[in-house]
Amino acid sequence: MSTPKTMQCINTLINTGIKNLKIFGYQNVTIHNICSDQVYRSMFYRMLKETYEQLPEIPVSSENIQSIKNYRNSIIILQRKINNNGGNIL
Question: Per-residue pLDDT tens for 37-50?
C-alpha cells in the first residue's frame, strides 16, 4: 500500500510526465492514457528512468532522505505499472 507522501510523489511525476509529453507535441496525452498508450508509455518510462538515475545519493543523516525515498518508491511503482501494460495508475 502506498503512503500519502508516495501518492503525492506519484501524482507529481505523472503530471510532470504529461506536461513534458505535451511540450514534445503529444497534445492528447492524459492521466488516463499516459501508461496505456504504447508511445506515451514508452516515453514516460524513459523519463522516469532518467529521473531515478538523477536523484542524488543522500547520506542517511540528511533531512531530505525520506523525500528522496518517496520519489524512488514512486518511480518504481509507476515503472511496474507501465511494465504491466498500464491500467489504473492511481
Answer: 999 999 999 999 98
The number of residues in the chain equals 90
| Residue (of 11, 17, 1) closest to 71 by Cα position | 11
* 57-79 as b/e: b if 16+ CB within 10 A: eeeeeeeeeeeeebbebbbebbb
All cell numbers assigned to 68: 528522496
Q: Report the alpha-carbon distance of residue 74 to residue 3 in Å, rounded.
A: 10
- In the chain, which residue ranges form alpha helices assigned H by DSSP? 4-23, 38-54, 65-83
The pair phi, psi for residue 56, each rounded to 5°, is: -70, 150
Cα(90)–Cα(78) distance, rounded to whole angstroms? 9
What tens digit of pLDDT does each residue of 2-47 get? 678 888 888 999 999 999 999 999 999 999 999 889 999 999 999 9
